Each structure stands twice: as C-alpha cells, then as structure tokens.
Hints:
Largest sheet: 5 strands, mixed
Shape: elongated
Strand order of the largest sheet: 6-1-5-4-7
Distance between the termini: 33 Å
Number of helices: 4
Radius of gyration: 16 Å
Number of domains: 2
Amino acid sequence: METCIVGCKLPNGLKINLPGVPDPVTLKGANAARIVGGYGMTPGIPKEAMERWIAEHKDFTYVRNGAVFMERSDKDARAVAKERRGERTGFEPVDPAKGPAALSPEDAKVLARQRAENPDRNRQVDELNA
C-alpha cells in the first residue's frame, strides 16, 4: 500500500475518517512537538484513501486554504510547508497587547496561566527555524 505524508496547520490537528480505513486517523497539528513551517506532519497515511478524503472535502475551508495538505514524500511536504509558512488559518493565538480585540485583564491572566500549564510550551521545535 502506498502512503503519503499529511501536513496540518490547525492548532490541535484533526481526527478524520478515511474511506476504506476502519479506524479514525489523527493528523498532527500546529501544536505538535515537532512542526515544519507551522504544520504538524503525519507520515504513513494511506495515499489513495487520503486522496479520496481530500476530494470529498475540497470545499472545506481548511482544505481550500491549504491548512491541510498531502504530499507523496517528506521532502515534498517540507517544501510545501516552507512555502506556506506565512499563510494564516484564522486559528492563530490572540496577542492580547495588539489591536481592538485586546483581552481584558482577567482574560489575559487566564491565557497566561493556560500557557504556563501547557506541558509542551518549551518543547515545540519548528524544524525550519532549528
């Protein structure tokens, strides 16, 4: 069976049901410990099933805007992630110090506490910046 690698820039990844695959597949997302250009990379996905899933979901925003993509090889996936690294998904973290959507002081404290409690906060490595 031929496999592919899937890049996903959604913060927590995505759990999908692939046609012909009995169990759901969880795609790594932008919060994965190792990312490339902001994308979590999930290797070993059945290529034909993923192609069918993308065709069936082509109108979904995250497929249309490239937040979820598939490539045949790790090298190709890394190149696509590098090329798309600056593209936004709409799920980027809120910067409480900027703009009219600034957080209230209480919400800023909650956000700071949640970041401090995140066990992966200092372990994430973007391989393009490493």
